[in-house]
Design goal:
Blueprint (H helix, E strand, L loop, with lengths): L3 H10 L3 E3 L11 E3 L1 H20 L4 E2 L5 E3 H7 L1 H4 L1 E6 L6 E3 H8 L10 H10 L16 E5 L3 E3 L7 E4 L4 H5 L2 H7 L6 E10 L14 E11 L15 E5 L1 H5 L6 E4 H6 L6 H16 L7 E5 L11 E9 L2 E12 L1 H9 L6 E15 L4 H8 L3 H14 L8 E6 L2 E6 L6 E12 L2 E8 H12 E6 L2 E6 L10 E5 L6 H14 L4 E3 L5 H10 L4 E5 L19 E6 L5 E5 L3 H9 L9
The structure holds glycyl-adenosine-5'-phosphate (GAP).
The site of glycyl-adenosine-5'-phosphate has 18 residues, from strand 11, strand 16, strand 21 and helix 15.
Subcellular location: Cytoplasm
GO biological process, one term: glycyl-tRNA aminoacylation
Pfam families: HGTP_anticodon, tRNA-synt_2b
Length: about 600
């Protein structure tokens, strides 16, 4: 485990990430991934794509990051995507009021507490501005919308927003995506891309930033019929921390299998449980320490405006539990909203096994009566009669039926409506699918994998820091060194590099400084294997231990144990690929 400072220092020195625009003083909440970080991030995204898109048979899309205002009116982000802002009356600095409460009291998840109560807590605990120490009691808390606003084209007639979640880019294309899926539920659509939130106080390095990468899956299901193939993850275990236990005095997370939490109703939606199982395996595969990991259910006041239930994957980092990903049951919230705000239908046609015969109430209003009677409102009265017949046929039982148009009641003789009931055969119905959403933050996953894989020890009397990153995501898979760049060893090593790169491995070549130093450099960026070309490789029995020459073999050194084995050069591409992909272990060599 690192302390946060060591990791941030290593991250900058070794090219993982750094605060961007440093030449201009840096800008809070924006980070640039250096060469090691960009490679690690890409590898993490690739493993996510493999697990959540390819292996699950989902479709991936890539939508714009700027979207027009109506999208966010419909989604609820314009009205409801707010954080609690409190401004210091003295220094003018803005802070997140709920974070000030959490940081200075034993209260957790203050985000779920109503604004008025947070104001009271600030007064009760006499909380002060973290920047200048001035008391904040009595300061009003404002709702601060987190979206970055922009204009689409010149002028301000068409406001747009940088998307605060990638999800909306999927929802708004639902009618077309459903066609690609041949209107067959369930189907899933994934997206990896940037999201933007104008966080009030970005903090903890990559953990709360203003531009970050989300990897999201929107799974569209028929809530009446579709069930996940739970067996695939039924035996996966994890610590679960349900809302009820968080609210209980001595409540603690407890270990259970996915099967158990479904059978016991702890996780109410089997689809959510299924993806918790998938995600647990995925987080483990990228280097998150499972002893510092748990699933926590949202408290009711904490849930986003769209979520009917939500569980977070959380990891312990620097003594705090941070949210790595959210698993929300969004029900039909988003599709219904876009259906009513846009001109398109956000439903799928669900075919019945057998056609069914139903009775349907119909009207055929006599317009020669409605026209003179209701003038310009006649058409609206006719529409209202039609809707009422469908909704409440009993309303036509008397001699007169009353409908409301623009707040005004209109009485119509039933005989003028031509009300009737007919039998129709229906082959199916339009339904609005429900949405299951595993939404993972890549930056937080990356930071956590780095934090959890950071180690320090001593090798040959020298201190070393190293990263135990899994080979599948390490920025570089192999470091190749000549013992020295002379007597043909450099040329030989460079040929090995070409060979390994040709096999698709991420390779770095290093011939500068003592060999021990070169190993340390690779250890620090988490390179799992190093290959050294020495005199024995060249067929010359000149190594220090007096071992017999082993022509065309090299040493392969494993990072964590520093153990070394000799491997024929001809076998290297296959061996190292198998080691990277987890098909062989170093002990097997
Ligand atoms: N579509 C659902 C959604 O956006 P969220 O819980 O707000 O849900 C999902 O975000 C994930 O995105 C979080 O679990 C977190 O990993 C990441 N995330 C959210 N805000 C972030 C921020 N300011 N900085 C870094 N990552 C963030």
């Amino acid at each position: 485990m690192s302390d946060g400072g060591d990791l941030v220092e290593l991250a900058k020195r070794r090219g993982f990430f750094l605060q961007s625009a440093g030449a201009y003083g840096g800008v809070s909440g924006f980070y640039t991934f250096g060469p090691s970080g960009a490679a690690l991030k890409q590898n993490i995204e690739d493993t996510w794509r493999d697990r959540f898109t390819i292996q699950e048979g989902n479709m991936e899309v890539d939508a714009p990051t700027v979207m027009p205002e109506p999208v966010f009116e419909a989604s609820g982000h314009l009205d409801g995507f707010d954080d609690m802002l409190v401004e210091c009356p003295d220094c003018g600095e803005s802070h997140r009021a709920d974070h000030i409460v959490e940081d200075n009291t034993d209260i957790e998840e203050a985000e779920s507490i109503p604004v008025a109560e947070v104001e009271e807590l600030i007064a009760e605990y006499e909380l002060v501005c973290p920047t200048c120490g001035t008391g904040l009691a009595g300061q009003a808390i404002e709702d601060f919308n987190l979206m970055f606003e922009t204009n689409i084209g010149p002028g301000s007639a068409d406001p747009g927003y940088l998307r605060p979640e990638t999800a909306q880019g999927i929802f708004i294309e639902f009618p077309q995506l459903a066609e690609y899926a041949r209107n067959q539920l369930p189907f899933g659509v994934t997206q990896i891309g940037r999201a933007y939130r104008n966080e009030i106080s970005p903090r903890k390095s990559l953990l709360r930033v203003r531009e970050f990468t989300q990897a999201e899956l929107e799974l569209f299901v028929d809530p009446e019929e579709d069930e996940p193939a739970l067996e695939a993850v039924a035996d996966v275990t994890a610590p679960f921390y349900p809302a009820a236990d968080q609210e209980a005095d001595e409540g603690q997370p407890y270990e259970a299998t996915i099967r158990e939490v479904v059978d016991e109703g702890v996780v109410g939606k089997p689809w959510i449980a299924y993806y918790l199982g998938v995600a647990k395996q995925w987080y483990e595969s990228i280097g998150v320490d499972m002893d510092r990991f748990r699933f926590r259910q949202h408290l009711s006041g904490e849930r986003a405006h769209y979520a009917a239930d939500c569980w977070d994957a959380e990891a312990e980092v620097d003594g705090d539990w941070i949210e790595l990903g959210g698993f929300a049951y969004r029900s039909d919230y988003d599709l219904s909203k876009h259906d009513s705000y846009s001109d398109e239908e956000f439903t799928v046609f669900k075919q019945y096994d057998e056609p069914i015969t139903v009775e349907r109430a119909t009207v055929d209003p006599d317009m020669s009566y409605l026209g003179p009677e209701f003038g310009g409102s006649a058409g609206a009265v006719a529409d209202a009669l039609e809707a009422l017949a469908e909704r409440d046929p009993d309303a036509f039982d008397g001699s007169e039926v009353v409908v409301e148009v623009d707040g005004e009641s209109h009485a119509v003789p039933v005989e003028k409506t031509n009300f009737g009931v007919e039998e129709v055969t229906e082959s199916g119905e339009h339904i609005t699918p429900h949405v299951v959403e595993p939404s993972l933050g890549i930056d937080r996953a990356l930071y956590t994998a780095l934090d959890h894989s950071y180690r320090e020890d001593e090798v040959d009397g020298e201190h070393r820091s190293y990263l135990t990153l899994p080979a599948a995501v390490a920025p570089t898979t192999v470091g190749v060194f000549p013992l020295m760049d002379r007597d043909g060893m450099g040329e030989y090593a460079r040929e090995v590099v070409d060979e390994l790169r040709g096999a698709g491995l991420a390779v770095t070549y290093d011939d500068s400084g003592a060999i021990g130093r070169r190993y340390r450099r690779q250890d620090e960026v988490g390179t799992p294997f190093c290959v050294t070309v020495d005199y024995a490789t060249l067929g010359e029995a000149r190594d220090d231990e007096g071992e017999s020459a082993a022509p065309d073999t090299v040493t392969v050194r494993e990072r964590d144990t520093t153990a070394q084995k000799r491997v024929p050069v001809a076998d290297l591409p296959e061996t190292l690929t198998a080691l990277r992909d987890g098909e062989r272990t170093f002990d097997d060599l």
